[in-house]
Design brief:
The chain is α/β, with parallel strands linked by helices and 315 residues long. It is built from eleven helices and eight strands. The protein has one domain: Thiamin diphosphate (ThDP)-binding fold, Pyr/PP domains (Rossmann fold), CATH 3.40.50. The chain has a six-stranded parallel beta sheet, with helices on both faces. A two-stranded antiparallel ribbon has the order 5-6. Helix 8 (196-211) links the parallel strand 7 and strand 8 (217-222). The radius of gyration is 19 Å and the shape is globular.
C-alpha cells in the first residue's frame, strides 16, 4: 500500500510540474482494495484493470521503473511508451491489460476465464471496475455469461461513491450493487474497502471458490478516492463534494489504520513503519530517475506492436 501511495503522490507532483502530461486517474485512498485482492492471487493468475489502475499494477507485482517510465511516455515503459497512465501491461505477473474504456476490460476478462476453464489450468481472473460499470450493458452480459458457465472470474467493484463527477446517490435509487450482482448468480459480498484484511479475506474466499470450480464472485469494496476524477487536484471547490466528506474519508486512511493495527499488536514498531516509508520513497525516486533518463520511442517503430505477426513485430 505504501508503494502505491508514494507512487501516486509523486506522479501528482510531476503532473503539476508538467513533467508528466498523460492524463492520470490517481488511486490515492483506495490502496487497500488492490493490495488485499492481489495478495490473494497467485503470480500466474490474471488481472484486468481500468483507467485508474496504477494501484492494481503495483499490487500485482508490476515493475515500478517500467510503470514510471510509462507515465513519461518512454520506450522503457511497461507499454513501450504507447499506453500512458491508462494502458498498463505486465504479462510476466499476469497483468494482461488495463483499459481507458469504462467496462472495456470485462468481456476480455470473462473470455480469458473461459479459455483457462477449458484448458483446466486452475488460473483465476480478477477484473476491477468502478461503481458506474454495473450501469453498462456489457457488465450484465459479462456477469450472466460468467455465472452461466461457472467461470473462474472475480469481479471487484471499487465503489468510491462517484462515477466521474456524479455521486452514487444521484444515479441509483438503492445502494445495492452487490445485490444486483447476486441476481445474476454471482456469489456477492460487500466489504470495507479501506480495511485491507477484510478485502483480503473476501478475495481469498472468492479465489478459492473460483479455483475449485464453483464459479464467479462479486466483491463490492466501499472506499473513496481522495483526489478528483482525473488529475492531481482535489475537487471540493467544484461543488461535487464537500470538505467534511473528504476529511472524514482521509481520517480513515487505509495505510495509517493498518500500520497502526500492526504496531498495536506488536508485529511492527513505529520505527519499522518509518523505515519502510523511507525505503519506499527511495524506490520511487529511483523509478523517477530511471524514467527521465530513458529514451522516447523511436518514430521508426510507430507501427511496431500494433498487429500480431506484422513485418515489424518481431518481439
Amino acid at each position: 500500500m505504501m508503494r502505491i501511495r508514494e507512487f501516486e503522490e509523486r506522479v501528482a507532483e510531476l503532473v503539476i510540474e508538467k513533467k508528466i502530461i498523460t492524463p492520470c486517474h490517481l488511486y490515492t485512498g483506495q490502496e487497500a482494495v488492490a493490495s488485499g485482492v492481489c495478495h490473494a492471487l497467485r503470480k500466474d493468475d490474471y488481472l484486468f484493470g481500468t483507467h485508474r489502475s496504477h494501484g492494481h499494477y503495483i499490487a500485482k507485482g508490476g515493475d515500478l521503473k517500467a510503470a514510471m517510465a510509462e507515465m513519461f511516455g518512454r520506450a522503457t515503459g511497461c507499454s513501450k511508451g504507447r499506453g500512458g497512465s491508462m494502458h498498463l501491461v505486465a504479462p510476466e505477473v499476469g497483468i494482461l491489460g488495463t483499459s481507458s474504456i469504462v467496462a472495456g476490460s470485462l468481456p476480455i476478462a470473462v473470455g480469458t476465464a473461459l479459455a483457462e476453464s477449458i484448458r483446466g489450468t486452475g488460473r483465476v481472473t480478477a477484473v476491477f471496475h468502478g461503481d458506474g460499470v454495473p450501469e453498462e450493458g456489457i457488465w450484465h452480459e459479462s456477469a450472466n455469461l460468467a455465472a452461466l458457465k461457472r467461470l473462474p472470474v472475480i469481479f471487484i467493484c471499487e465503489n468510491n461513491l462517484y462515477c466521474t463527477h456524479m455521486a452514487l446517490d444521484k444515479r441509483r435509487v438503492h445502494d445495492n450493487l452487490h445485490r444486483v450482482a447476486k441476481e445474476h448468480g454471482l456469489e456477492s459480498v460487500v466489504v470495507d474497502g479501506n480495511n485491507v484484511p477484510d478485502v483480503y479475506y473476501a478475495a481469498r474466499d472468492a479465489v478459492n471458490r473460483a479455483r475449485e470450480g464453483y464459479g464467479p464472485s462479486f466483491i463490492e469494496c466501499r472506499t473513496y478516492r481522495w483526489r478528483g476524477h482525473v488529475g492531481p487536484n482535489y475537487d471540493v471547490d467544484l461543488g461535487l463534494r464537500n470538505q467534511d466528506e473528504l476529511d472524514a474519508w482521509v481520517a480513515r486512511c487505509p495505510i495509517k489504520h493498518f500500520a497502526g493495527f500492526l504496531v498495536s499488536i506488536g508485529i511492527l514498531s513505529k520505527n519499522d513503519v518509518e523505515e519502510m516509508q523511507r525505503g519506499v520513497s527511495f524506490e520511487i525516486e529511483e523509478a523517477v530517475s530511471f524514467a527521465v533518463s530513458s529514451p522516447f520511442p523511436d518514430p521508426a517503430d510507430l507501427t511496431r506492436y500494433v498487429f500480431k505477426g506484422g513485418a515489424s513485430n518481431d518481439d
